[in-house]
Amino acid sequence: MSRSLPNCYVSVGRLLVVCLASTVCAISSSGAEPEGMSRTLTIIDAAIENAEDPSEKKALVAMRGCAESGSRELSLRNMNLKRVPPEIGQLTQLVSLSLNQNELTTLPPEIGHLSELRMLQASDNPLQSLPPDLGRLQSLTGLYAVNTQLAELPREIGNLVNLASVNIGYGRLQELPPEFGRLTKLRWVRLDGHQLTALPGELRQLAGLRHLGLRDNQFETVPEVIWKLTQLESVDLANNQLTSLPQAVGTMSSIVSLSLNGNEIEQLPSSISKLTKLKYLSVNNNRLGELPEEIGRLSALVQLEVAGNQLHTLPPSIKQLGNLIVLDVDKNQLATLPAEFGELGVLRQFSAQFNPLTDDALDVLVSAPRLQILNIHGSKFSTAGLKELKRKLPDCSIREDEVRKGFYGGYFAF
After folding, report:
1. How far apart are CA 260 and CA 63, in angstroms?
2. Single pTM value for the model
3. What angle do CA 382, 332, 336 make, to 5 degrees?
4. Which residues fall within 8 angstroms of residue 12, CB to CB, at 6 or more apart?
5. 326-339 pLDDT, tens per residue?
6. Which of 25, 93, 280, 331 is the least buried, fewest Cβ under 10 Å from its Cβ?
7. Are strands 234-236 and 280-282 parallel, antiparallel or unpaired?
8. How confident is the model over 184-198, as pLDDT tens digits?
9. Are 57 and 76 in contact (CB under 8 A)?
């Protein structure tokens, strides 16, 4: 049998609930005034009532829920939106907005009202332009718009002074605005898959930039401004039209990862020896006829990929690569290996597919002390030679069938 509480307890309980609800509302809405929220809801409700497009109405309903709850994150991804409702500008509390996977060709100018926005995602849209109002997002730290139809960036992008991470890959950009150089807090940039042939000199101001991705563009020479960015740790220039790598590459004293896959480079400069922090070097599918002796000075190198070139031999200095764990020389013209190969004390994985390696390389291979994976599909080892190889390397996985690599042409992609 239940008993009712005295009226005084009920009154106090109700008061406590009201107080708690008010506190939660105040916290979740980040200080928004009730009158302001009421006005926002009224505006969005009117838009919902007048919306004719089902996708837009669905987005407005999501926006209303965001406004009512005070949520600071909103996802309108994959809604088949042809436009973002201008009422988005009412959600001034937002710190994260995802518009990925829609049918947007531009963003509304009202997006500039989102003064607290830190993360904006608009990938997988047929975007043709970004509004100048984008430059009003002073709090923005991350901007992602991959796989679009963007042919230019607004000059106002230079006003995003807190931007730290940008991925505007795979569009139709032919140049960057000089104002891009004003983004001095940038640490990570990818501008892959455009029609870029040069970079503005103003980018030298990006002194803190650590990672730069420029793959799948139309660079015929390495942009000189890159040599000014001395804090760069990774650079990806794969699948461009580079025919050479200048001696200036030796100035990249902080570089850890360098990808030059899919170019037309015929030789590596001797100055590459100065890259003492380099751990990952990928030069697959170029026109290298040899590797310089100086490559042995890359004492930090962990992974070396030179598949798809025209190498007939490896330099004896390779023995100096005391930290090398992965070596990929697939699709070259190696018939044998230098005796020094056996001195690669920590080499775990060696891929030599589609090389004319013969039994002459057996003694060298079996002398590698820690080899665990050996890919030799397409070699010219005799049956007896293969049997001997397996006998002397009992703990090594010897793969005679073709081993296919990843999309980026190697084991490592940054």
Report:
1. 44
2. 0.89
3. 45
4. none
5. 999 999 999 999 99
6. 25
7. unpaired
8. 999 999 999 999 999
9. no
